[in-house]
Amino acid sequence: MVSPEERIRRCHSKLRTVSVTGTNGKSTTTSMLACIVQASDEPYAKMTTLGADVNGKEIQETRALYRFLETVEGAVSCGVQTMALEVTSKALSQGFAQRWPAHVAVFTNLSRDHLDMHKSPEAYLASKAQLFMHLHAEGIAILNADDPSSALIEMVLPEDARVLWYSLSGKAADLSVQKISVSLEGTHLIFHQSPASEFLGSELRLSVVGDVHGANGMAAALAAKALGYSSKAIKEGLNRFQTLAGRFDIISQQPLIVVDYAHTPDGLKGTLRTARPLCAGKLICVFGCGGERDRGKRPQMGTIADQYADIIILTTDNPRRENPDQIAKEIMKGRKGQARWFIQHNRRTAIAFALEMASPEDVVIIAGKGHEKEQIIGTKTMPFCDVETVRALL
After folding, report:
1. Structural domain count of the chain
2. Which residue has the higher pLDDT, 118 or 234?
3. Among 210, 240, 270, where does a domain finish?
4. Dihedral sign, CA of 289, 293, 299, 305?
5. Most buried among 100, 232, 254, 281, by the most CB within 10 A?
6. Tens digit of pLDDT for each residue in 77-89?
7. What is d(CA 173, CA 15) in angstroms, rounded to the nearest whole number?
8. Domain that includes residue 201, residue range
9. Looking at 240, 260, 289, which one is the last position of a domain?
């Protein structure tokens, strides 16, 4: 009988894999790539932390090994040529990159996260670097020129690997932004002149809102171009892409109410910075931090919320067995006195309070849980979804 590992190994040579890693933007970039493949009229396969999908068929298997096996075997049987894959630091630290080398490896960014697992920023980066160290022969790395960690990743690439760079801030890169415009209609990028920008007609238009999505879109575009996809397929695929559940997910307008998965300092900063230009009134932020996880990020997130929001309603995320009062105190150590703060540990009540105080011109950001449908309090896991809660309250 052939083992699952051997069946997986046999699929590798029949698929081109674009693997995406980083702290933020992994699921979005992976899903954007799948949209580009769809726009080229090819069957597609993608696997993210939100789920696995082979040409429109959702993979229901929950066991990690068998979910991956069903995905890759399904992709091969459907004639998929390019599979888009999100790769977490946990999977990489367990040796995934050696067992399934990527043909194209994408790095989105690196900021503080998962230090409860990796113990240090250096160990966290080292886990991400595994994807690039074990890149397939003559593979291609897509790196973020705006992130200092990219230079370290470049140093561990195989000698025959090719590197393509992208920059949202206008740095010298294969694809570099000259101007970015963000509105409720979407995100418009205009590029500095380069062969890659000329290939794309010097611009990209995304239906999703936020400059961070602009960076994700550039990474996906470069990866697809490297694999030979047409400019038409890339532009159409990125324009068709709709936001993922819980990723700057606009639930309502007037006031603008957004649910976002931002649960790291960098993620919260990006979300609030995206929201600010869309806000004619007050920027209201509802968030908390998970219990029994990286405590060092709590005051950092407090400082960011205080700097970018006008009103903060501090609530629970997944407190687990920690005292919510203690978590709140640690977050508020980062308070600088710029915003008005409220504490309401009941997450539903906190969201209701935010909606009640919001005027039509305000923006309400509900951050931290995004797509999640459960909340862990003590040792109990209970149904709770920010999106459903907002809709019910509205």
Report:
1. 2
2. 234
3. 240
4. negative
5. 100
6. 999 999 999 999 8
7. 29
8. 4-240
9. 240
